[in-house]
Structures are given as C-alpha cells and as structure tokens.
Amino acid sequence: MAFIYELPNKVEIAEVFLNHEEELLNIIPNEFVLSMDHMKKDIQPIHATTLSASLNRFKNVKKAELLIGKQFPAEHPLLSNGEEFLSEVKDIFEKLLPVYTLSFKYM
Asked: Which architecture characterizes domain 2-102 according to CATH?
C-alpha cells in the first residue's frame, strides 16, 4: 500500500495514523515492512519505533512517502506458482484494507 507524497490531505492522514499507532501495530502483520521512498530499496521492519518515526517523517517531510507491504526475495517459491501468489496478494490486500479505511478518518 502506498501513500505518496503528492497525496491530498497527507498531513491529516499522517495525524490520524499517529493517533492510532497502537491500532496500526495490531493490524499490520509483523512480516510486513515499511519504506519511505518507492525509488529506494530501503525497507524497515514494522515495530513501534520505526512506525512512529516513519509516520512523523511522512507528516513533516514534503517528499516523504509511506509504503507498507510484504517483500518477497526473488528466489521465494511462491513467486513461481501463479495461483498461490495471487492468493497471497489477495490476503495482503485484505490485511491492509483496515489501514486504508483508517486513512479516511480525517474526514
């Protein structure tokens, strides 16, 4: 899931996320990762420290992005099985849907 820097109401969404950090930590599975820039391969595990710092950066830095997802190494066996991979992608979407829904609480 990507919240890009051009996102309207980016600051308000970041504030909602900051006010619901504990909920986000409960929603987002431990094996998911964070990234702050879709152009870089820099990722971080999701835990209270990285989430808080990432959310604050997303709120305060104009060009900051917030990307949340699951990363698969190129050799992961799931990537060679189309049906299993699609099933996993659907599962990821379902797990992240509450985060997406939470992003609308600023309205």
From this structure: 2-Layer Sandwich (3.30)
